[in-house]
Amino acid sequence: MKDKINEISARMNNLDAQMNKITHLTSKIDNNLKVKRKEIQKLDIVNNDLQKLNKLCEFPQILKQDLEQYH
């Protein structure tokens, strides 16, 4: 029974070490991708703004077409 407890304890220590390693690597990956993530977020904001601007630029033509339908 004592051997089983020691085996379980060793496995738990190994699990703890592996979890710490995973946490460290996850933090490292997150830090490496932080800059790219911010760049992607900025590009997404610019893309959304450009789409809105494009719709705004198309609006006069759409309005003109709609008005022509009613005349």
How does this model look, in words?
This protein is mostly helical. The chain is 97% helix and 0% strand. It has one helix spanning 2-70.
Topology:
Layout: H1 2-70
Give a brief outline of the structure.
By secondary structure, this protein is mainly alpha-helical. The chain is built from one helix and no strands. The chain has one helix at 2-70.
Tags for this model:
mainly alpha; 97% helix; 0% strand; single chain; 71 residues
Mean pLDDT: 93
Q: Low-confidence parts lasting 5 or more residues at pLDDT below 50?
A: none
Percent strand equals: under 5%
Per DSSP E runs of 2 or more residues, the count of β-strands stands at: 0
Largest sheet: none
Shape: rod-shaped
Report how far the terminal alpha carbons are from each other.
94 Å
Return the structural class. Answer: mainly alpha
- Rg: 29 Å
Number of helices: 1
Which range best describes the helical content: under 10%, 10-25%, 25-40%, 40-55%, 55-70% or over 70%? over 70%
H/E element string? H
